Amino acid sequence: MSDAPRPCDTHPDIVEFKYPLPRLAQSLKSQRKVKIVAIGSSSTAGEGNIVPFPCRLELALRGQFHGRMIDVLNRGIGGQEALDELSRFDPDVIGEAPALVIWQVGTNAVFRLGQYSFDDVAASIATGLDRIAGFGMDVVLMDLQYTTAIVGPDKIKAAEQMVSLISAAAEKANINVFRRFALMRRWCCGDGIPIAELIDPTDPDKLHMSDWATNCVTQALYGAIAAALRATA
């Protein structure tokens, strides 16, 4: 039996961005130092021994753009939702003046169903996007992970509703969505990967992604960013 890691299919057709990334493209062209902020909850901050996506994305971008000092600042705090994250936008996002903001939202509203009003989450996302728009930053919204804690029988309808709310907010603001939920669902429902392989085996809540899933999601995100930069150029 082979011990080789499972191949990673990033399904570019699912995660492809709709809009270019002009601010990031210009920064990479004209500046030596390029800053990206990733804000969100534990999917961003990291959980357990799994290296989170901001660190992996930083390495991928540095490997591609030699000679650039690219920093992906991790501004994730576990357990937070859009309402909580909005309250720290000034120091954690706007104050950093990044070329790109990756905002991971929606997971805790579903995981802790009933604790957050979906209307309040949607309103906070819209408010946050409006505030960022005034500073000319590129923005990507990252939606939910497809794990047992999110897609169980008691959560799946709420998860799909939240994914739709995030997509609608992005469409209204003319910014990109990284469709993590659809990508991971494709792995399970189309590629035949057991959902257990997408979950951190040490996580009793079955909420957080495994090392393989985190790595493959990051590859997909990097691919979407790189394709958008090529389209921008």
Automatic annotation (TrEMBL):
This is GDSL-like Lipase/Acylhydrolase family protein. One of its GO terms (molecular function) is hydrolase activity, acting on ester bonds. Pfam families: NonGDSL. Gene3D superfamilies: SGNH hydrolase. The lineage of its organism: Bacteria, Pseudomonadati, Pseudomonadota, Alphaproteobacteria, Hyphomicrobiales. It comes from Bradyrhizobium erythrophlei. InterPro entries: NonGDSL (IPR057572), SGNH_hydro_sf (IPR036514). SUPFAM superfamilies: SGNH hydrolase.
